[in-house]
Hints:
Structural class: alpha/beta
Radius of gyration: 12 Å
Helix content: 40-55%
Low-confidence stretches: none
Strand content: 15-25%
Distance between the termini: 21 Å
Shape: globular
Number of helices: 3
Amino acid sequence: MINVVYNIKIYREVLRDTIKQDDLVVELGCHLGNSTKIMAELAPEGRIIALDKSEAAAQCMNDLTSSSANVEFLKAD
């Protein structure tokens, strides 16, 4: 399923309504990982693959991946 939402509050509501415990989620443009963390909590038995090309994202996401086994970060465009 693909959902495109531009309002962050609505986006996070959609996450809670959409993501199941064992889902595979690909997040394009994860930025600092605030929504990624929510996804990881919603899918503890799943896998979250987060992509972003910024250095700021890489620093934050490295912290998140070390504390969340189901999150993989790719510094990519």
